[in-house]
Amino acid sequence: MFSIPGQSPVKISPAAERQISRLIQGKQAYGLRIGLKKGGCAGMEYTMDLVSEAEKSDEVIEQNGARVLVAPAAQMFLFGTEIDYETGLLESGFRFRNPNVTDACGCGESVSFSIDRDAPQG
Question: Are 100 and 28 contacting, i.e. CB atoms less than 8 angstroms apart?
Answer without folding.
Answer: no
